[in-house]
Design brief:
about 350 residues, alpha/beta, inorganic pyrophosphatase (n-terminal core), Diaminopimelate Epimerase, Chain A, domain 1, 2 domains, six-stranded mixed sheet, five-stranded parallel sheet, 13 helices, about 50% helix
Amino acid sequence: MTIRLLSNCKYVSRVISASEKVAIIHHWDTDGIASSVLIANTLMHRAKELLFHVPKIGFYTIESIDIERLGNFSPNIILILDYGISLQELKRLESILDAEVAIIDHHINEVWNGAFCNPIAFGYSESLYPSTTWIIKEFMGIRDANDVITLGLIGDLGKLIESHRLKDYVLKTCREYDISLTDFFKAVNILDSCYKLIDKGCIEHAREVLMRQGIKGVLSNEILNDKLRLLRIEIEHALKNINLVKDHGIVKVFNLLSDYYVTSHIGREIAYRFKNNIIVLKHSIQKLGLNYIYVRSYRYNLRNVLEKLRHEDLCVGGKDHVFVITCMSSYCKELDTVLKILTKYFG
């Protein structure tokens, strides 16, 4: 482990501990929700004043953040968890709010010289740090919340946890908290149903339930279970309408028809079916007014492709085995660039 990474993460821990008013901006998925709960439960023991904020679902710029609300709160520090916003956007946020920004994350990004705890940005493998909850565990000294840490792991790894190096840790946690692996997966599906249905209020509710009632509270909450039932109907419909539009051998291109934010869910399912390939999923979501290109492979490391796409000035973010591009037009002309670079690297 590099001295700089360890120093950065220790600095993040110190500035959080020293701040009386902390604004927590977190990603909308299970890992983001679980990470916010881990930090909040730690800070609450120290009588901190907290403000939670979930950015506009599907967007990764400071325009997706409620600047006025954060400004009115006047935080000592703005803590960003599991939200892969670019370095340029981070600098804009810090400048506008005149407050220090701290980041705990595991998405590929440039190194931030300030309060920045992201092993992936320092070149470490995603397999070592597969979730933001795991980074919080490893670097923030949290040792008594293995259930919430595991929730974040399963949220990001999905079925891969069954063959991952942290499987034994997860199974030990299941025994420790008397929660089956099946129920952990169900809790992840419940939490993720909120953002997939593009329901921000549901995300806020889910975070509060997890914070106050734990995973068993999430599993038994009727409001959240109703969301999951609604989502399952849409997932079933979407999976029936997946079309293979291009077959480049290793690289297979699919088109998704759904007006919900189920891009990652469907992408994972297809990638799991085509484990030896790279899947490219094009998805238009009218409710968000956005078009996405989702790329995932369980076999191939895509970091070099992601870095190349960054140099092409595309709006892209991701990790070693998955990345997402937000298209700048409904035509999604970025797809041609993606396929050209994938073909170059993987034939």
